[in-house]
Design brief:
heterodimer, A: about 450 residues, alpha+beta, ten-stranded mixed β-sheet, two-stranded antiparallel ribbon, 12 helices, about 50% helix, elongated, B: about 220 residues, alpha/beta, 9 strands
Chain lengths: ~450, ~220
Amino acid sequence: MNDFTIIRRSLTARSLSTVFTTLSVAVAVGLMLVLLMMRDSGRKAFERGSGNMHLLISAESDPLTSILNSVFYANPPRRPIEWLKFQQLQRVAPWEFFIPVQMGDSYRGLPVIASTAEIFSKFKPDAEQAWKLRDGRFFEKEFEIVLGAKAAAETGLKLGDEVALTHGAPKRGEADKDAPAPHVHDEFKFKVVGVLEPTGSAHDRALFIDVVGGWIIHAHDRREAEAHAAHGGDEHDHHDHGITTTADNLTDEDRKITAVYARVATRPGSDASAMIPPTFARLRADPTIQVAQPTQEINKLFQIVGSVDQILLAMAGVVMASSGVSILLALYNSMEQRRRQIAVLRVLGASRGRIFRLVLAESMVLGLIGSAIGVAVAFVGVRLVTAAMKERLGLVIDAGIDPRLGAIVVAGAIVLAAVAGLLPAIVAYRTSVAKNLRPLG
Amino acid sequence: MPEPALSIRDLVFKYRAAELFELRLASLDLARGEQVLLAGGSGTGKSTLLQLIAGLMDPVGGSVQIAGRDIHALHGASRDRFRGTHVGMIFQTFNLLQGFTALENVLAALMFSDLASSQHRERAESLLRSLDMQRMHARVEELSVGQQQRVAVARAVACKPSLVLADEPTASLDPENAGAAMDLIQSTCRANGAALLCTSHDPAMRPKFSRVEALSELIAGGAR
């Protein structure tokens, strides 16, 4: 028997009030933690995805959409860039890398990125960290496929496995109504040759193939459609014409890409370049393409999100304050019923100070339990939010609890609970023993 | 010669809020282990006197010494601690801690004692067993009145006090049970070496005590 037994009995004696008071603290702490974690790790995730690229070139309608689609795989890009245009753009500036990227195919809902070997050798998904292989090697020719870490985990594929890709976007909007419906190309088997280490970016859930492999699938579709048209068949029944397609069958119509990851030449060890602004300005003058600076777009995005973020944090603060008030009310109301208990404890030898500390400790225990549940709520909440971000934006947020941040919020909740417990503790301190032991005889 | 369990001299008490009540007690002594019945009707100040003795109220003048120590010379936590270790109290309505088990009610008293915490459980259990209290892990509200009384008695003597104050402990019981309850209180106090000052307005309790004091004769003034 100790002070904690008394606190525990007191809390369980009014269990309903305890549960609701604790939950209000838990919601406040959980909300606060989720918002703080998402703010920091969300920004990091965005910064990681664009890595060491200076510019992203696409044919999308606006820069932010192009970043979300071509770097974070929110949706397959809608408009292609012709190969001739790519070659023309390549001559605009001295590039450190100028990597073609084609998207639109998928495997079990995961995006497939068709590119060149430079995507692994020159582009870094994180500015500080190049790609690392967990198993195998990078692709060297068409029909070889490399798996991002999460893609490998989600599909269960391993080295040597062969997969057939789905051609066409799984997410289809109004703009895609004329595109062919998604269909699996069983005739082209891609062999898994490598599995990447996690990068903490959206690229982890992608599968990477040689761009020529992607073009061959497109060319095959085109050739089947042509053969079908020649036979005067139903335009939706493209397949089974006994056609074999190889790289030799590619035409300029097949060689399309959806984006270019570009980095202008820099001095060794420097990330910035004086060439970026003029190159950006020059490309921007071209009305057929969209050019975006990932860093700027992410800043813009966070300016928009930032104000909402502040409002949400303020709301979490209000919820936290209201949970403090609910602790105060719960304890204050319980004082009426507990006057006799306090008087008995005083008769048994408890000092006023000890009674004061007991009530204050009870209040802090409510804050502590609420905070512990709040941390659990935050874990679940972050999982739900990151899953939604991944589903809707293709953004992989590796949100973990920063121990210092968690400790500050939890400590804040406990201090708030202690402050809320002050008034009930004062009431308990001043409880008259003589008055509250009646009838005494 | 050992100090008496209780020694009251020239005690004067007035309610601060109203001048309607004044209690004056020139002298009252209880030897170690002595059992005294303080007889008197309602409103004569029996409860007030017990609260003064326990240090729950402050007198205007005089002294109350328990085991040789003036309880009113102690202040704050020191007085509370002294009361916890030297004075046991039994109430008419028991005043047990609701929601706590029988054992915890006894342990609660030991929390504030000088006894090493490692011995609390053993002391509480042996006391309850000696009082034939079987359901020591049941919550007190689940116990019969008789069982609750046993818990209250065990709690009062748990810290081996010099003095047990019992305030109308049998008032809510029928005559047969009242007699048995008083026997239990007396024998337990005797077994634990505690003096007993018991108030009662029930004449049937008088034969159980070798010394009976009428409060009206002890006090000068009384209710005015």
